């Protein structure tokens, strides 16, 4: 089990909400293409997300 800083979670939340707001402004067809392009980026992979959250073990 690990802990991460609330600020790291908040930053991830803010980025995701900004992405959703940007996607909402597009037409449905444009949205599908944009979602496909965005989800192919490495930053949305589980390893990249965990690295951004920088979890610290609760016990050693």
Q: What is the spatial order of strands in the main beta sheet?
A: 1-2
Shape assignment: elongated
Which segments are poorly predicted (pLDDT under 50) over 5 or more consecutive residues? none
The average pLDDT value, as a whole number, equals 93
H/E element order: EHHHE
Q: What proportion of the residues is helical, as a percent range?
A: 55-70%
Number of domains: 1
Q: In this structure, how is the largest beta sheet organized? A: 2 strands, antiparallel
Radius of gyration: 15 Å
Helix-strand category:
mainly alpha
Can you count the beta strands? 2
- Bin the strand percentage: 5-15%
- Secondary structure tally, helices: 3
For the terminal residues, how far apart are their CA atoms?
10 Å
């Amino acid at each position: 089990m690990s802990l991460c800083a609330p600020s790291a979670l908040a930053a991830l939340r803010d980025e995701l909400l900004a992405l959703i707001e940007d996607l909402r402004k597009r037409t449905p067809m444009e949205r599908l293409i944009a979602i496909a392009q965005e989800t192919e980026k490495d930053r949305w992979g589980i390893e990249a997300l965990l690295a951004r959250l920088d979890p610290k073990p609760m016990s050693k």
